[in-house]
Design brief:
- The chain is mainly beta.
- It folds into 3 domains: 42 residues, no CATH class; 210 residues, no CATH class; 107 residues, Sandwich (Immunoglobulin-like).
- It has 1 helix and 32 strands.
- Strands 24, 25, 26, 27, 28, 29, 30, 31 and 32 form a 9-stranded antiparallel β-sheet that branches. Strands 17, 18, 19, 20, 21, 22 and 23 form a 7-stranded mixed β-sheet that branches.
């Protein structure tokens, strides 16, 4: 940190307000009342603008309203806090931040204030900004601020970028809603060896979904069962990456914690081209032209999340979430509980969750959450009328993702063959099934089989495992 020459208090006051820049002082700074900007000097010979909002704090109070508009003119995209009339930190449903304005919108009218704090970066060359929630977590400054990029370093910032979804097209645009261009670029800082590389986007990456036929993404079924519907929201994550020629790209993937693209080029899909390997590590590039060999093993950074549903026969997807409820640039669906649809467990039967020709129940719940670190929290319950299975294979229950490490903390209770059982489940690492095990006389364990279930039998278990 550069120091101010001489007496600190005297020199700071002396350099505070000028109509024209004074003689440069190493470590000094001043405010120019003519252009309304702050200047600082690190070399003692020249002044450099440090942004009209550097270190500044702007506060504005609002009466009850669904839209708050603050004009701050800080010259940077500031960090913000939203406080209600009870002095509690709250979240807006949507926030847009520019170098001159903050617009916060709410579902219902609320009174309170916005506190905006300027950064120390130059307003003419701003590439990143930081928005913090009440816990000090980094947010995106555009969408839900509380849903920050918690698992990434604080230098993984995104500037002038948000998601737009119109008429079946998901597109990256600027915070003003306009397409990206050379005069309206977006930036992403991405890991590059021991430092970071700044990616500049001057065109808006996009893909057309099933709503805007022909779809760009048809055929990519990722971690789901091919040709089987996924009618509930399925989380996907938005990433930035650069190829070996330093060309920037945006892609989506089911994996929440990627640090690089797979080394296998067959896991890369893009507009109209489907990679031959479809699994939880498959990525879909938002581009018409991709040299897949130039993207394998390239470092990437997660910048947001979306939700989609999948059609039955074409493995085609429709965007269902892109801007609220944990979706958007800088957002993560921390508080979302997802439903695993029926039919993800068997090639032959579309109405059950179990392996092979296994049992099914009239009342079934299969819910899960996914964390930023790729941990899946899964709960399955089958009760009510039980329809017995028709083969003798070990009973297994489908899960949202296959696991990467053995599961040790997975417990459940079930009624099998008319008797109550206390047991556990274990994951087959080569598939997406939890296999059931129950104790016999507390000394040995047995696998239930598919055709051994009675009409009143039931099952319930919960499990946490590393899905990625």
């Amino acid at each position: 940190m550069a120091k101010v020459k001489g007496d600190l208090e005297t020199d700071v006051l002396k350099l505070r307000n000028y109509t024209a820049s004074p003689t440069a002082v190493e470590g000094g700074f001043h405010y120019n009342t003519t252009d309304g900007k702050f200047y600082g000097s690190t070399d003692g010979s020249t002044w450099a603008e440090i942004g009209s909002g550097a270190g500044a704090r702007f506060e504005q109070t609002f009466t009850a309203s669904t839209t708050w508009t603050m004009t701050h003119n800080l010259g940077v995209q500031p960090s913000i806090s939203i406080i209600d009339s009870n002095n509690d930190v709250i979240e807006a449903d949507n926030i847009e931040i520019t170098t001159t304005q903050v617009i916060a919108t709410f579902t219902s009218a609320v009174a309170g204030k916005i506190i905006a704090t300027g950064g120390s970066i130059t307003s003419s060359t701003i590439t990143t900004y930081e928005a913090l929630d009440a816990n000090g977590d980094v947010g995106d400054g555009v969408g839900q601020v509380a849903d920050g990029l918690h698992s990434h370093p604080s230098t993984d910032f995104v500037s002038n970028m948000k998601l737009d979804y119109t008429s079946g097209r998901l597109k990256i645009v600027g915070v003003d809603g306009n397409d990206l261009s050379s005069s309206n670029p977006a930036y992403v800082n991405i890991p590059y060896g021991t430092t970071f590389k700044k990616l500049t986007f001057t065109t808006s990456p996009f893909f057309d979904d099933d709503t805007a036929a022909p779809s760009d993404i048809a055929g990519s079924y990722f971690h789901t069962f091919t040709a089987r519907a996924w009618g509930d929201d399925c989380p996907f994550f938005v990433y930035a990456v650069y190829d070996t020629s330093d060309n920037p790209f945006i892609f989506i993937s089911p994996a929440p914690n990627l640090k690089s693209i797979s080394s296998n080029a067959n896991r890369i899909s893009y507009h109209g081209t489907v990679g031959s390997i479809q699994d939880k590590y498959t990525v879909f590039i938002l581009s018409d032209t991709v040299t897949v060999g130039n993207l394998t093993s390239q470092p990437c950074v997660r910048i947001g999340s979306i939700a989609m549903t999948k059609a039955v026969t074409t493995n085609d997807w429709t965007v269902t979430g892109h801007s609220v409820d944990g979706y958007g640039i800088g957002a993560f669906p921390h508080n979302r509980i997802f439903t695993l649809p029926a039919g993800q467990g068997s090639a032959g039967l579309s109405n059950i969750y179990t392996r092979g020709n296994g049992p099914s129940w009239s009342d079934t719940i299969a819910k899960y959450k996914i964390t930023e670190d790729g941990i899946c929290l899964y709960m399955f319950r089958g009760r009510g009328a039980c329809t017995n299975g028709s083969d003798t294979v070990a009973s297994g229950v489908a899960t949202p993702y296959s696991n990467e490490t053995p599961v040790t903390a997975a417990h459940g209770t079930f009624v099998y063959g008319g008797s109550g059982r206390i047991g556990y489940v274990y994951h087959d690492a080569s598939s997406q099934f939890m296999f059931l095990v129950y104790y016999t006389a507390f000394t040995s364990s047995t696998n239930p089989i598919n055709n051994g279930w009675g009409s009143s039998d039931s099952i319930q278990f919960s499990v946490t495992y590393n899905a990625f």
